Amino acid sequence: MKNKYRLYVGLIFLFAGFSTSKVNACDVCGCGISIMQSGVMSRINSPFYGAGYQFNRFIHNNVEASMNGNSRVYEDRMHSLDLNYRTRFAKRWQLVFQLPLKFHQRMEDAGTSSINGLGDLSVMLNYEAIDHKWGNWKLGLWAGAGLVLPTGKYQQRDLHAQILPPNFQVGRGSYGLRPSLNFFIHNEHWGAQAESQMHFFSTNELGYSWGNTYNNSIQGFYMSNVGSIQFNLNLGMRWDIIEKDSLFSELEENTGGRVNYGILRFDIKYKQSIFSVQYLKPIKNVLPENQPYPTGLFSIQYFHEL
Fold first, then answer.
1. pLDDT tens readout for residues 57-66
2. Residue in 232, 242, 240 with CA at minimum distance from that of residue 191
3. CA 39 to each of CA 33, 71, 116, 287: distance values in angstroms, whole numbers, following the listed order
4. How confident is the prediction for the chain on average, in pLDDT?
5. What CATH number was assigned to the domain covering residues 2-305?
6. If you compute the radius of gyration of the chain from its CA atoms, what whole number of angstroms results?
7. Residue 288 CB contacts under 8 Å (≥ 6 apart), including other chains
8. From CA 20, how far away is CA 219, in angstroms rounded?
9. I want to staple 261 with a disulfide (CB 3.0 to 4.6 A). Which of 44, 45, 277, 280 is the partner?
C-alpha cells in the first residue's frame, strides 16, 4: 500500500513538471531556543515588544550528495528578522508571539539560489510556576506550551527550477507543538539558568514529517550595575538532539543528528530598553556525512518593556 502511494505521488510530480533537489539541508538549524527565551528578558515578567536578527551558516561536505546535477553545492546561509511581542493577561500568565521574516541563500558552482518570505508564526503560552525568594537568592520556574502555525512557504525552487529540500524552506507546511521549561536562580550579581524545549511537528501535505527536536541549555551569568545601566554576561552550553525526519511514515536516511554548542551572550539594560547579543559556537556535532554542518549562530535583539 505504501509503495502504491509513493508511485501515485511520484506520477503527480512527473506530470506536473515538478523536480526536487536531492541536495540536503541541515536538520540541526540551531534555532530551537529563541534568543528572547534566555538572558534578562526571560527573568522579567513584563510585557514587551522587540525585533531581532539571526544568521546561521552551513557548509556542505565534498561528497556526491552535495552535487546538484553538475553543480556542487558548498554553502547555505539563513537570515531571519524576528518580530516579537509579549503580553501579560494575569499575574502569572504570559502570551508570546514571534513572527519571523526569512531570507535563505544556497551557494553552488552554477550560482546562488535565494528564497525569502514570511516564516512560521509561533504563539507561546507561559505560566510562572515558581516565584520564590530564599535569603538573597531568587528562584523562578516558567512552564510553557507553544503552537507553530504553517504561515511560511515550503515549496520554493532553486535556480535550476527544482524544489529545494524541506529543511531549507522558509516554512514547514505543518503545525508544531513546543512545550518548554525555564528555571533560574540568582542573587544580586551571580546566577544560573537552565532551559529545555521540545518540538513536535505534524505531517505536511507532501507527506513529510520533521523529527522531534530536543533543545537543552545551561548558563551561568554575572550581573553588574553602573549607574542606571545593567550589564549581564552569560556563558554556557547547549545540546540539540534531532530525530530523523520521515516521508510517508518511512525514516529519511540522511537526517537527524546531534550538535553541542558553546554559548556567549551579553545583555545591556537601560531603563525600559534591553539590547542583547548572542553567539552559539558548535563544539561537537554528530551528523550524517551527506548533511551540511553548522558553523555558528549569531543573534542580536532589541526589547522595549511596556
1. 999 999 998 9
2. 232
3. 12, 43, 29, 29
4. 88
5. 2.40.128.130
6. 21
7. 24, 253, 254, 255, 256, 257
8. 41
9. 280
Domain ranges of the chain: 2-305
Q: What is the DSSP letter of 32?
A: S
Alpha carbon distance 64, 222 (integer Å):
47
DSSP 135-197: TTEEEEEEEEEEEEE--S----B-TTSPBPPGGGSS--SS-EEEEEEEEEEE-SSEEEEEEEE
Side-chain-side CA neighbours of residue 84 (13 Å): 26
C-alpha cell at 64: 556526491
Q: What is the pTM of this model?
A: 0.88
pLDDT for the residue 28? 59
Strands 111-118 and 246-247: unpaired
Residue whose grid cell is 557548509: 59
56, β-bridge pairs:
78, 297
Provide the grid cell at 111.
550560482
Q: Match 553588574 to its residue by C-alpha cell.
A: 224
Residue 194 phi, psi dihedral angles, 5° rounding: -125, 135
HSE value, Cβ hemisphere, 13 Å, CA-based, for 149: 10
The C-alpha cell 542606571 sits at 228
Q: Which grid coordinates belong to 83?
A: 518580530
d(CA 19, CA 22): 9
Question: What length is written for the chain?
Answer: 306
C-alpha cell belonging to residue 85: 511581542
Q: Is the pLDDT of residue 54 over 80?
A: yes
Q: Is residue 16 predicted with pLDDT exceeding 80?
A: no
Residue closest to 152 by CA, chosen among 93, 89, 107, 104? 104
Contacts of 216 (CB under 8 A, 6+ apart): 194, 195, 196, 197, 238, 239
Alpha-helical regions (H) of the chain: 2-16
- Mapped onto helix, strand or coil, the DSSP state of residue 304 is strand
Return the SS3 of 107: strand
pLDDT, residue 19, reads: 46
